[in-house]
Amino acid sequence: METLGVWLRQTREAAGITLEEAEAATHVRRRFLERLENGEFDAFPGGDVQIRGFLRLYARYLNLSPEKAVTRYDGEVHAARSGAPDKRSAPVASTAVVTSSGDRRVGRERILIFGVGAVLLAVVAFLGWYAFARPQDENPSSLATVTVGATEMTTGQSGTPSPSTLTPTIAPLPDGGVSLTLEATEHVWASVSVDGELALEGMLEPSQVESWTADEAIVLRTGNGAGLLVAVNTQPLGTLGERGEVVTRGWGPEGELATSAIDQALD
After folding, report:
1. Of 77, 98, 127, which residue is a domain's last?
2. What is the rounded CA–CA span in Å between residue 204 and residue 211?
3. CA-CA distance, 114 to 46, in Å (whole number)?
4. Cα 8 from Cα 62, distance rounded (Å)
5. pLDDT value at position 154?
6. Model pLDDT, residue 121
7. Which listed residue, of 84, 122, 156, 178, carries a Cα 20 to 30 Å from 256's Cα?
8. For residue 192, which of 204, 177, 205 has the smallest C-alpha distance?
């Protein structure tokens, strides 16, 4: 039986579709499509979640069953893992040596943990003393800094916020760009724009996973902030709001986008 990668590649070639065309239509970068077709699953930085999202998207684009594609992926990965050597067949003497080494390693780890804990306690105690003992600033600044979402803002004496520098909180991808992975935990409506083009708009089913990559910006809108688990650049962010809360968030290569940048990305 042909492998999942061969199945995908042969389907694409039979339809006369190039990898460049598939990349433009799915918003999944060519190198990830090639890795799917070559079965190079270990080369995905986002691991299993990213693979499943890209696989569903690519299979749907090729008019294949996303569920069948994921099932074949699970079967191949399980078969590869079950083919690994059984460590339980190792000789008894060798097992004894490993156990002894493991005991010594555990002992060293415990000592290290206790040492780090003691240092942390000392640091906390010092910071607490410093917070109460340090003299108050005789000339406090007239501006106070507050954080709203991912945007750092400054407020003057009038209390009116003015945008300041956006503080990046997402680690950048090694090759640039930005990626977004969504996993629905319930029936939830979502809209995703990739580099200014609408890539998704509609209902997601529970456990449905979708992923996208962009060069400049990805904007997510949902009517239920608690219904989606979000990962940006493979970094899990959890949910983005409360149940029933309307949420609009955006990300670029440098981190999360401010409201003005989101509006510009959607224009």
Report:
1. 77
2. 13
3. 33
4. 8
5. 36
6. 66
7. 156
8. 204
Between helix 30-38 and helix 4-14 the angle, nearest 10°, is 120
Q: How many domains does the chain have?
A: 2
Q: What is the residue-wise DSSP string for the chain?
A: ---HHHHHHHHHHHTT--HHHHHHHH---HHHHHHHHHT-GGG-TTHHHHHHHHHHHHHHHTT--HHHHHHHHHHHHHHHHHTS--GGGS-HHHHHHHHHHHHHHHHHHHHHHHHHHHHHHHHHHHHHHHHHHSPPPSS--S-EEEEETTEEEEE-TT--EEEEEE---SPPPTTSSEEEEEEESSSEEEEEEETTEEEEEEEE-TT-EEEEEESS-EEEEES-TTSEEEEETTEEEE--S-TT--EEEEEETTEEPPHHHHHHHH-
Tell me what pLDDT residue 202 has: 86
What's the CATH code of the domain at 24? 1.10.260.40
pLDDT averaged per 10 residues in sequence order, the chain, 267 residues? 90 95 89 92 81 89 92 83 50 40 55 63 61 46 35 37 45 88 91 92 89 93 92 90 90 90 82
Query: Is 239 a domain residue?
Result: yes
Rounded Cα distance, 251 and 172, in Å: 11
